[in-house]
Specification:
CATH architecture: 3-Layer(aba) Sandwich
Largest sheet: 5 strands, parallel
Number of strands: 5
Number of domains: 1
Shape: globular
Distance between the termini: 7 Å
CATH class: Alpha Beta
CATH superfamily: Response regulator
Order of helices and strands: EHEHEHEHEH
Helix content: 25-40%
Strand content: 15-25%
Mean pLDDT: 89
Structural class: alpha/beta
Number of helices: 5
Oligomer: single chain
Low-confidence stretches: none
């Protein structure tokens, strides 16, 4: 079952992580934000393997996924999520600095639910993160009976 209010943030930039966590905490949109630093760690978390083998079985309400990461890039993570019967309904938001048309198209072709370019302007960045948090934690209704691990 999808764990309401839990987000998985897949981001290798520590400054972005700290800023997003601060914004989400102030906004009270997520009970818990799990942070992983690269695509390999994201897959380990989602598939409950390696150091995450004993984590609870809940699936996050949404994955905020950076595109360009070490070890395994965001598109490969997305492809593996969509290929798995248990996770294919999991909402994935590509949250990246890339405005490259090829990246946008490939993200949607691979099954991204949204593609958000990180704003450079601080205030705009804050509002974007708040909007993402509010939509995916409050307004989005997942498919009934989907997303269980």
């Amino acid at each position: 079952m999808i764990h309401a209010q839990q987000m998985l943030l897949v981001e290798d930039n520590q400054n972005d992580v700290e800023l997003m966590l601060s914004i989400l905490a102030e906004s009270h949109f997520a009970n818990e934000v799990v942070v992983v630093r690269d695509g390999a760690e994201a897959l380990d978390y989602l598939f409950r393997r390696g150091k995450f083998a004993t984590r609870d079985e809940h699936t996050p309400a949404v994955v905020l996924l950076d595109m360009k990461m070490p070890k395994v890039n965001g598109l490969e993570v997305l492809k593996q999520i969509r290929a798995d019967q248990r996770l294919r309904w999991l909402p994935v938001v590509m949250l990246t600095s890339s405005r490259v048309e090829r990246d946008i198209l490939e993200s949607y072709e691979c099954g991204a639910n949204a593609y958000v370019v990180k704003p450079v302007d601080f205030e705009e960045y804050v509002e974007t993160v708040k909007d993402i948090g509010k939509f995916w934690s409050v307004h989005n209704e997942p498919p009934p009976g989907k997303g269980s691990n």
